[in-house]
Amino acid sequence: PGRDGGRTRFTGAGRIQRRLRPHQTSRLRSWAALWGAGESSALHVVWALLLYRAAGTRGPVPVSFGVHFSGRDLTLEGAADVPGLLGNPLPMTVTVDPAAPLVDLLRQVRDAALDLSAYPWVSGDRILQWSGREEAARLADTVVRFDSRPELPEVLRAELKAQGIQVDVPQSAGGDTSLPVTLVAQYDADGGLLLTATYDRAELSDADASGVLSQCMELLRRLSDQQDERVTVGQVLGLLESGEVPRMARQRRRPRTVALAVLRPGGPQADVVCLVAVPGVP
After folding, report:
1. Whether 138 contacts 124, CB under 8 Å
2. Domains of the chain by start residue, with CATH
3. Does the pTM exceed 0.90?
4. Could you please report the per-residue DSSP string of 80-108?
5. Which tens digits make up the pLDDT trace of 17-50?
6. Which H helix or E strand runs over 187?
7. Strands 142-147 and 88-96
8. Strands 61-69, 142-147: parallel, antiparallel or unpaired by DSSP?
9. In what order do the strands lie in the sheet with 13-20?
10. 76, CA 20 to 30 Å: which among 109, 203, 226, 230?
């Protein structure tokens, strides 16, 4: 989501968060529902707009980014209760036309997500083969993931409470990332929408990453003001006219490195649980 820039002189993975307040989240949800979509589609629209703006072009242009699907709604009995990862990021491509109504773009990303929802089991390597691209190519430079709040069974909650165990809403942890930017959206305990961006600091500086996420939040706040279905994509892009377009270095794809992130420290005699990356999955 940034125009070509020079090297950042930084290394490692960065992590930054922004929060949409509960009443703003509610307004966003109501606005998306008004046009037959969910707030995840609203987030996809905003991300597509930022990618289009970074391209610095005019007229209709296709943009592509990864969208993560949980795989919990597969037509597989008991899929929702299977431990571990079932989902996968899939490439979503939509056409952003400044002259087209904003609601058309919203419906376009909604329909694209519905089409992709049948393929969360397909690995990135397999999709790369289907696309005919080179093995070292990326399907997308960015991934957007919208996490729903997990609901623990009532029996399990009661058992944990009886033992004095409090379970909080899971939070994303920073670590090594094979993509320049991964954006995760999830609800916090108060019902606000929390956005977490994990990014490669060699390709996107901390300042530019902050700018990307701030512009994303600005559009999410302003979408609910667009009640007229005649509002165009170009008019919404104009809301960011006074802001600078972030810069992003273009670098060759590097092999993934091993990076350990401590999610929760344990005691001296505690067991150790490691989350292992799956080949072909960013």
Report:
1. no
2. 3-249 (3.30.559.30)
3. no
4. GG--S---EEEEEEEEE-TTSBHHHHHHH
5. 999 999 999 999 999 999 999 999 999 999 999 9
6. strand 181-187
7. unpaired
8. parallel
9. 13-20, 193-200, 181-187, 142-147, 61-69, 88-96
10. 109
